[in-house]
Design a protein that fits this description.
60% of the residues lie in helices and 17% in strands. The protein is of the alpha+beta class. Strands 1-2-3-4-5-6 form a six-stranded antiparallel sheet.
């Protein structure tokens, strides 16, 4: 194990340099993108009556994890290139090569450090990003107003009951414990709208749904009346609400796998969700690819004037991976690629490309 690394001292030196640059770049990019994003959204947040600066900071707290998850692979790529360029300019790579180390041994500390970054990224995505995404999606659905139901659940679900249409802004729980928030029932007869029934909450009750306190707007007379608690949608099952819309970015791996199983049992299509499920592993693991793709910046003589070109090639390889990854996911969502292939094909392809470039560079 120890022979795989240059030495304990050099391995710690390279790993620390790589991590400091990676997370330093991440902080700088986060500050820039968060500022730009806040400039575009702060007007919509403050437009809702009663919202103040505290709601703006709450938005920052929910949006920042999403931006971090998006930027982390890019930061690893740029951190790798910056680390290797510095070592190349200081002739440290030449010294390691002169000591008889292979290109893989030179990169070993960065690969191990990036594996740790990938593990942290996976846990961060599962525990923080998914919850922040679910909450932020709910908040946007109510135009940054108060959230009537706990965060982290399905939003903006539509269900059909015969001629009637039922819109629910928030759904939480499963089975008999399903709870609805902000319910709107469009009572239709023969395709024509007869009345609109609204209620802030609802729950499953026997063979229907008890919603209340409900109000009814009669389209013909234009009269609005209070109904109290009423029962609606006798033909709608709880799973029609809970499976009506699944936000894969707002669910962790376990919850998404359970939702896919429920959808499959109900005969619903799940291919796009399965691709996203696999990508919850392949996405964070892309950090391990970045030292391999950026390694072209480490080798070659710095005074030859080609160091900048090598850095550009490393960045081009890294960004080409992200383009291929997004393209494969899009093809998976369309059903053109199998889910496993859509999630893992770009990773495996660029792993081979990185190894080929590294071997060719070493030669």
């Amino acid at each position: 194990m120890t022979s795989f690394f240059p030495s304990r001292t050099v391995a710690i030196y390279m790993g620390r340099m790589f991590l400091v640059r990676t997370f330093g770049l991440l902080a700088a990019l986060l500050l820039i993108l968060q500022t730009l994003d806040l400039l575009s959204e702060s007007g919509a947040i403050l437009a809702h009556p009663g919202n103040t600066q505290s709601q703006v900071w709450e938005y920052v707290g929910l949006r920042a994890p999403q931006i971090v998850a998006f930027l982390l692979p890019f930061s690893v790529l740029l951190g790798t290139i910056l680390t290797l360029i510095t070592m190349n300019q200081n002739s440290e790579v030449i010294a390691l090569k002169a000591a008889g180390l292979s290109a893989h041994q030179v990169l070993a500390p960065l690969l191990v450090a990036s594996l740790g970054v990938a593990a942290v990224s996976f846990v961060f995505n599962e525990r923080i990003v998914t919850r922040a995404t679910a909450t932020l999606d709910q908040w946007k659905d109510v135009d940054y107003g108060p959230l009537p139901i706990d965060r982290g659940e399905r939003t903006n679900v539509w269900v059909r009951d015969g001629d009637d249409l039922i819109a629910v802004q928030q759904v939480r729980g499963r089975g008999e414990q399903t709870r609805l928030g902000t319910v709107t029932v469009y009572d239709r007869t023969g395709g024509e709208l007869v009345a609109i029934i609204r209620a802030p909450q609802g729950r499953h009750a026997g063979d229907g749904w008890a919603i209340g306190p409900a109000t009814r707007f009669d389209v013909a007379t234009g009269r609005l009346s209070s109904l109290g608690t009423v029962k609606v949608a006798p033909g709608v099952r709880p799973d029609q609400f809970t499976l009506g819309k699944v936000n894969p970015e707002g669910l962790d791996f376990t919850a998404l796998a359970a939702a896919i199983g429920d959808l499959r049992d109900a005969g619903r299509p799940t291919k796009s969700l399965e691709g996203t499920l696999w990508h919850k592993f392949s996405g964070p693991l892309s950090a391990v690819l970045m030292p391999l793709l950026g390694a072209v910046a480490a080798f070659g003589i710095a005074r030859s004037g080609q160091l900048f070109v090598r850095a550009v090639i490393g960045m081009a390889l890294g960004f080409a991976y992200f383009v291929a990854d997004n393209f494969a996911l899009a093809m998976g969502n369309l059903g053109a690629y199998p889910p496993f292939l859509a999630a893992w094909a770009p990773f495996l392809l660029f792993l081979l490309i990185g190894e080929a470039v590294l071997i060719r560079t070493e030669e």
